[in-house]
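Q: How do we represent a protein-ligand complex in a form that can be generated token by token?
A: Start from the inputs.
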Amino acid sequence: MTMDRRSFLKNLLLAGGGALVSLAGGVLFKGCGPGEEGEPVAPFPAYEHLENEGRLARRVEEAYAILGACTLCPRRCGVNRRSGERGFCRTAERAVVYSHSPHFGEELPLVGSNGSGTIFFSNCNLRCVFCQNYPIAHEGWGREVSDAELAQMMLDLQARGCHNINLVTPTHVMPNILGAVRIALNNGLRLPLCYNTSGYEHLEAVKMLEGIVDIYLPDLKFMDGGEAERYNDAEAYDYPGKAQKALVEMHRQVGDLVCDGRGIARRGLMVRHLVMPNRVAGTREFVHWVAEHLSTDTYVNIMAQYRVEYRAFEYERIARAITPQEFIEAMEWAEEAGLTNLDERSLQQLQRFRQRT
Ligand code: SF4
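Then emit the structure tokens for the protein with iron/sulfur cluster bound:
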């Protein structure tokens, strides 16, 4: 982070009062970590190093082999996707893509000046009842693509100046992504991969991404199995445990966020958490879990944009927006937990809510 941005945020927070002054004193905006002065980080992008070692092709084969009796994610459907069968994610052997384009609504270290290169995959292995992308995730809008077509999308995003390849809802198409990355790499791709997942991951699948993914961007949506089970299309009682294990592994692989001299993400873990009405998401447990099991320097985006989407209106406890007070208490819990690297936009949102109350 530049000093100008740091000063701006400090002034922003100091303009608050009470807990805000305390938040500012707690240095909640470390930004991008030690790489911000241009210090070298791990080989970059990670997948190029793996290819140079001759190991990327083998990884692609191993990933595709899982589709023969699919256990890619915790649903463990066991269907043969290679012969056209579909499990919970309704996806056979080929990936389905809704869109690919530069995106400017993501976290600032991903967006930079030219945008994050998002590829939205259709269908989902979790399917929340409040999904904000339900036409894509639940209804499967999009078209099937080959790995070569997917590789071309990555190269197109690079040609348009994007700072990373942001793979949105990638879990159920991980083998296709690896296949496409290898093709794209051999045609000039050099951008870091950002794995933008719901967090409902099988630990063994995440282990296969070591040395390929530079930036992990998982959600941690629920801390309680009962809430996770209640607000999904099909039971996902095991969501908190599976997601927590996955996040620990992601952090082990890439560590805390590191950026280049322009403040653009190079490598590391960025965690998202959506504050929900009536404390459904377990935000207090979330921030303490991050502090205890990852690091207090973890880049955390506590999000205020919950909306009553898709089937959320059918559930009384989540059939409204959050209140300013619900977001303020979430941010204060983050301070209580000792988190030091909160997303800039969430800090700005805190300031706006404080001015209203
Ligand atoms: S990726 Fe799809 S088919 Fe495979 S286990 Fe998960 S939901 Fe089932």
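Confidence is low (pLDDT under 50) at residues 1-29, 34-38. The beta strands are 95-103, 116-121, 143-145, 165-168, 193-196, 215-216, 258-259, 265-274, 299-303.
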